[in-house]
Design goal:
By secondary structure, the chain is an alpha+beta fold. The chain folds into 3 domains: 159 residues, 2-Layer Sandwich (Beta-Lactamase), CATH 3.30.450; 83 residues, Helix Hairpins (Orthogonal Bundle); 160 residues, Heat Shock Protein 90 (2-Layer Sandwich). It has 10 helices and 12 strands. Helix 1 runs antiparallel to helix 4, helix 6 runs parallel beside helix 10 and helix 8 packs antiparallel against helix 10.
């Protein structure tokens, strides 16, 4: 069953239950209140009759209660009954003749010697209209002794007719209300869920057409609108990942094609020569090692992307690590560059020592490759306040005096297989994965990396890592 149908049925059911409860409550209140109103009128009438009596209450006779006939004109029937249950005065006539509530009278006579009781009841006799009857005790002035009763009655068919009309009106109003609510609920549900249907159709069209460039329409800022925006953001992310994947596959294919071509060419050459050629074997080994490094780097990036990069985290003294990096840099440079190191204070971070050395060695190796002979490479470390001003950060910098990086290329230097000077990078043996690996390792340590460069002056890579403060742990 469609959700809009279920919601419409739910709205209709809830409204029906509410109208039923409300109507039943209204009818119940009216059905109780109207008879009580009649009882109040009859009670006041009984009190007025007693006030007009002329004889002593304990010996009253028919002559002691005059003007009872006047009550017939207002539709009130009256009987004056003594202690023996005999009517000594009455105004019964016409269709009121024969009126007597014997049950209330018997109860009243049975209670003569006890506390006086007032009885109200509705009498329905064949051939007579329903009447509301009040049996009111006549009590002595000096004591609580009951000397008789005044039994009053009033026809209530008009009241019952009003109650029936109310019930009928409530029923009609309820039916009309339920029908209108069902129609309104269906319209509202259609309006509310219409954008959801549109999102569903668009998603299906995107899936069937493999067109990730399409977007769902967003209207308003309600839950449905935010769902549309979230869906569009997801599509943006998928589109970006899809493009990265396409570029990655293309780049991997391109990078692997060159060493595979070299390996195949040298193998075919040795096959044609019918002997082993040392230079061909060396070329095959070199290209095989290059492919091995590329596959290892891709595996490392894949582990970093999935958050499963293996690390042995401990407290690291960055001063000691930078001394090792300086020695390695001098060996890698072979005296062709000036290597400087500048460490300010005791710098401690939490991380994996091998991974941290890998980051710095990659940056230093990159600087050596792109710095002319007799150029300068500076490795610096300092403790600075983070951007949020709440945590100290260790800033590691690797600067060179090379040609610099064009501003248009700076946003992409950390992308996989991206090379500023592709021809020169291939000559240097790079595949464009070094900086991508550096960024992944730094982010796995909870830090970030950025780059600054000026053409003709050099480039600086800055690594920001949270400083380790044992007293705050």
């Amino acid at each position: 069953m469609p959700i809009r149908t279920r919601l419409t049925i739910l709205y209709g059911t809830i409204l029906t239950a509410m109208l039923t409860l409300f109507g039943a409550a209204v009818v119940a209140v009216v059905a109780v209140a109207l008879p009580r109103t009649v009882d109040d009128v009859l009670r006041e009438t009984a009190k007025a009759i007693l006030e007009q009596s002329t004889g002593p209450i304990d010996t009253f006779t028919i002559r002691d209660f005059p003007n009872l006939d006047s009550l017939s004109d207002v539709g009130v029937a009256v009987q004056i009954i003594n202690r023996e249950g005999v009517a000594v005065n009455t105004n019964l006539k016409g269709n009121l003749i024969g009126f007597l509530d014997s049950d209330s009278l018997k109860k009243s006579l049975a209670a003569l010697n006890g506390p006086y009781v007032e009885y109200q009841t509705t009498v329905r006799q064949r051939g007579m209209r329903p009447m509301r009857v009040l049996t009111y005790p006549i009590v002595g002035l000096e004591s609580d002794q009951v000397f008789g009763f005044i039994q009053l009655a009033r026809q209530i068919d008009d009241l019952e007719g009003a109650i029936q009309t109310l019930i009928f009106s409530m029923l009609i109003i309820g039916i009309v209300g339920v029908v209108l609510s069902a129609v309104a609920g269906a319209a509202i549900t259609q309006r509310v869920l219409g954008p959801v249907d549109q999102i569903t159709r668009t998603a299906l069209e995107i899936s069937r057409a493999d067109d990730l460039n399409r977007r769902v329409p967003v209207t308003g800022n309600d839950e449905v609108g935010r769902m549309g925006m979230a869906f569009n953001e997801m599509l943006e992310r998928l589109t970006s990942l899809f493009r990265v994947q396409q570029r990655l596959v293309a780049d991997v294919s391109h990078e692997l094609r060159t060493p595979l071509t070299v390996i195949r060419g040298n193998a075919e050459l040795m096959y044609a020569m019918g002997c082993v050629d040392i230079e061909s074997v060396e070329a095959i080994v070199k290209e095989s090692e290059r492919m091995t490094r590329m596959v290892s780097n891709l595996l490392l990036l894949s582990q970093a992307d999935s958050g499963q990069l293996p690390m042995k985290v401990k407290s690291l003294d960055m001063g000691a690590i930078l001394e090792d990096i300086e020695r390695s840099a001098n060996i890698m440079s072979a005296g062709r560059h000036e290597i400087r190191i500048n460490v300010c204070g005791d710098l401690v971070v939490r991380g994996d020592e091998d991974r941290m050395k890998q980051v710095l060695l990659n940056l230093v190796d990159n600087a050596i490759k792109h710095t002319p002979n007799d150029g300068r490479i500076t490795i610096a470390a300092d403790c600075v306040m983070g951007p949020d001003k709440n945590q100290q950060q260790v800033k590691l910098s690797v600067s060179d005096s090379g040609p610099g990086i064009p501003a248009a290329d700076l946003p992409y230097v950390f992308d996989r297989f991206y090379r500023v000077d592709k021809s020169r990078s291939r000559e240097l043996g790079g595949a464009g994965l070094g900086l991508a690996i550096v960024r992944s390792i730094v982010e796995a340590h909870g830090g970030h990396i950025d780059v600054e460069s000026v053409l003709g002056e050099g480039t600086t890579f800055n690594v920001w890592l949270p400083a380790y403060e044992p007293n705050l742990v």
